[in-house]
Amino acid sequence: MDIKLKNKKSILICFVVSVYLIAIASIACIDVLNNKYYLKKEAYINSEFFKKEVINYFENVQILIRSDKSDLNKKKQEDLESVKLKKVINNNKAFSYYIKNQNTGKVYTNISGLSNLNKYIEDKALYNLNLSKIEDNRFNFIRTEVERNNFTGNIIVLKKGETSTQLYRDYDYYNSIKSKLIKEIIIGIMSFGIGIFLILYLLKYKRDELKFIEKTRERYNKVPVELRIILLFIFLKIMSDYQRRIYLFDMPIKIERFIKLSFVALYIFYLLICGLNFINNKNNGTKIFKNSIVYKMKEDIRESFKIKSTIRKVTLVYITTISIGFVFIIGMAMFKYNKLIFLLIMTYIGIYAYIVPRYIFKKTAMVNKIVKGTEEMVAGNLDYTIDENDKGLLGKLAHNINNMKKGFKKSVENQVKSERLKSELITNVSHDLKTPLTSIINYVDLLKSEDLSKEDMNVYIQILDKKSKRLKVLIEDLFEASKISSGSIELNIEKVDISEILRQALGEFHEKIESSSLNFKVNMEKDGIYANLDGKKTWRVFENLIGNILKYSMKNSRVYIDLETEGNKAMVTMKNISAYEMDFNTEEIFERFKRGDKARKSDGSGLGLAIAKSIVELQGGNMDIVIDGDLFKVIIEFSLLDK
């Protein structure tokens, strides 16, 4: 039991982990989609931040060039602002520039010792903006200035060195996000694959241990379609807000992120339930529609109008109450009123206009169903069942009426069965008594003949003796059955050994058992199995059952007789293979004059099993019959004496 419980817990944990893995994959997917720009090639180079850095640098260089071109004296050219600007440009180690004025032929650069510009660009450049061929529309401003001043040359963004600048920090930031997103993609794919595999495996091979899924789906099926749609939209809205605020993979890890992850896992579980529900009900749209509020409202209205007198009264009450509300509003409109009170009244009327009609139609429909059900029962249709879907007193009333109908139906069935059995009893008694009696009358007539030989006379007398004894047995059995059923039989209850009584019964039939082709297998658990019983009557039960076995068993078959104890019960089991087809009910075989051979060719009276069962039950025991194909099995239980 403990191992089974542990396995169940392990499977449950495995399922929860699989849902969380899919939730992690979902969050990874959302994060990747929200930041997919960072996955592009040269994402930072193509960003607005990079554009601003390049344009700002070009503007500073351009201002520096203009200051160099001015006609002011040398002292003014080296004025404080110019010096500051040159310092800013030279301190920005992320850029180099090489600009040539085509009009004057003068070259402006911050590259010292330059011998080969192309070689320098190839070795040093992270990005090169060729001023003669500006194709990137982001740099339209630079293109315009270059064309206006007739500049050529290059603005070069250098590869990262030891110096840290804002541009390099931004560049590293973009690359770190790209690296993080690639890891998220790998984690997402692995989490999704493992999660889906686990869920599919558990649903296919361990579904019995995940019964809560089926229970959840059954509860979900009870939710009206309209509420399901609203619930789905609420989840989608929350998830759409979440996708902008979920940062599961950022450091440090906080508890609030696990809470958000749990909510996403809950949403995944909800989608799983929706998916399973869709698969199971994809061809059952009618059933889903019947569970909707609209359909139920329509049915309630339809049922309500079946008895017009009821709906008229209910509608009158509804219209009267709603009219009072409108009169009150009109009265308020004619005088000064409070907006809050007006809003509350309108809200009340809105709720009233929805809830009250729904309640009225539902209750009216229930009343009509009860009336319809009682009419069907009065008409004799006892198979009609009143719908009990109301949780109030009307539902309880419908339930009680259905129970009354079931009891009445059972009573009618028992009465019909009783009449049928009574008819069969009369037929069987007449047949069983008439057969030997007719034989006696016929042979008596033959004996009256004067030309009979002594030998024939002896034969006829033997037959008469046999038939009269047969008739005597039938009458005695009939009287005994009558006495038992009326309760007038006397029992001599005393402490007896059941094993000893069973041995005596078997001993009584020893010669017949030996002469038969049957193979008896007797198994007694132990000697001295004591109970308070009537020894003679109990012997009569065993004698009847063993006699039936000898009469009705298939030739050359085995018979099993077992006596064993189980708790405070002694159990006697007798099993044999029937020679007749047993196409009868196990309950009917206990009826009086009911016999296994319908042709009634055997010597039995048909009262034996009925008498045996009555004797057993009068002694506080129980006797049952089990039929399995041709196997006939009798089980008798007696209460043992307390030790």
UniProtKB/TrEMBL annotation:
Keyword vocabulary terms for this entry: ATP-binding, Cell membrane, Kinase, Membrane, Nucleotide-binding, Phosphoprotein, Transferase, Transmembrane, Transmembrane helix, Two-component regulatory system
Gene3D superfamilies: 1.10.287.130, Histidine kinase-like ATPase, C-terminal domain (3.30.565.10)
Domain Histidine kinase: 428-625
Domain of life: Bacteria
One Pfam entry name: HATPase_c
Membrane topology: Multi-pass membrane protein
Residue ranges annotated for the HAMP domain, each copy included: 367-413
Reaction(s) catalysed by this chain's protein: ATP + protein L-histidine = ADP + protein N-phospho-L-histidine
Name by which UniProt lists this protein: histidine kinase
Organism encoding this protein: Clostridium tetani
